[in-house]
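Escalated from tier 1: 6-O-phosphono-beta-D-fructofuranose holo job.
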Amino acid sequence: MPVPPAGEGYDVVVVANRLPVDRDGSHPDGSPRWRRSPGGLVTALEPVMQSQDGAWVGWSGAPSTAEEEVSEPFDEGGMRLVPVGLSGDEITGFYEGFSNGTLWPLYHDVIVAPEYHRTWWEDYVRVNERFAAAAADVAAQGAVVWVQDYQLQLVPAMLRAARPDLSIGFFNHIPFPPYEIFAQLPWRRQVLEGLLGADLVGFQRPADAQNFLRACRRSLKLVPRHQGVEVTAADGSQRRVRASAFPISIDTAAMEALARSEPVRARAAEIREHLGNPDTVILGVDRLDYTKGIGHRIKAFAELLDDGLLAADDTVLLQVATPSRERVEQYRLLREDIELQVGRVNGAHGRIGHSVVQYLHHSYGREEMAAMFQAADVMLVTSLRDGMNLVAKEYIASRHDERGALVLSEFTGAADELGQAIHVNPHDIDGLKAAVVQAVVMSPREQRRRMRSMRRRVGEHDVQRWAHDFLTTLRPDLAGQVPGGADEARGDDAEDEHAGQARGEDHR
Ligand code: ADP
Ligand code: F6P
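Tier 2 regenerated the structure:
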């Protein structure tokens, strides 16, 4: 692959399965219409890329057709976007199949059974090659290329083979499983070799990095030392690959500013009013995914109503379940289950004009999400396994009033950082019920104490810092060029504390 002439191409290239926008039909004049694509990866990377003069290589979220109008790079939302086309068959084999029918369940504790199909693997290899070629095309000489997530684990090695001049980073947004589970994968060697094409492999938690290094030892007979391994190329040259944890975060200041804005505050009050001004609003916000434990949450809620520990007249569970991977069988079955459960609870406990579970199967703008966070007394995150869970951090960031309580599964990456949340094992329904009651009755003083500590953490460890830490570990010479160093001032937590005291709020 030819290296672009000096001065051409981009110095920072992100390669992710999805572009930050999805194709959403066309405008009347025939030009493509875009909407923000779902999920934590876009939430995290969008603000980072908007602050860089870089390019983002990814799929548009729709099948490519012969007359595809968007195959050329284009600018959107302050970013240079480079679309990679996938045919309908590739979406089936690469995205719905190997990525979300094999790797997703395998990497999430086999909550459902992974399927292993050789044709899916062939599509995965072919599509990874296409992403690698697209990145190699747009990267400037000596550029940093940052490959994202489990859909593209072969890209680092493919890219290194084509462009040895690049610095290559990889970040896995989801857990990396223990070897005993990973070992099921018939292509485990190829996946590890693909990842080892990177100079730095990042994970959410230290345990994920350890699992990866252990897999390298067991499968490839490499000897991990000092959070990394030495790999030997075909020509005998040696290279060190580092593996460590970089817990991802959100654009905390932007989330807080949004939550503080007058329209969002007004909308939060309106939402409570539309819900019938109940005493307690409990909120869940998740992609409709079997890893999120939505069914466990609804079961606990229903039992609390049955037991009379929550009053049906004065409590609403607002559950946003974002449509996700709807052509994958397990996701279709999940939707049926959840909607059946919601119907049952509402049938048993609702009355005319009042549903105890408000179930919304939609995507929303960020303002609406911020308003929902503001409107909620209790936020429920009950994932059975989750790389990080950014929703938990968004809830914390948006509670500038230091009110609200967070119930957080211990199986999320976020639980490592948010020690002042009420931690739960979502499989333990009695424990989950007790945690919900604890959150509902928590005094404002206790809410404030916990919120302050969690807000400090999320304020100091935002997504800019995450990107800065990763990129400067990969390439120390980037310090000073990437915003988000730990020394930069961010957040106004200290100021908030004093302001709160001055206003004399809720010091009960
Ligand atoms: P995942 O990456 O598994 O989807 P995360 O909790 O880490 O889970 O990230 C989800 C992101 O998607 C968050 O930024 C959240 O605000 C956003 N999100 C979730 N549901 C919706 C929705 N219905 N509309 C808009 N954004 C949503
Ligand atoms: O981090 C997990 C992840 O797969 C991300 O890559 C993506 O942002 C999110 O979940 C949503 O998934 P999908 O792109 O399949 O809709």
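The pocket of adenosine-5'-diphosphate (ligand 1) is lined by residues 38-40, 43, 285, 287, 320, 322, 362-364, 369, 388-391, 394 (CB under 6 Å).
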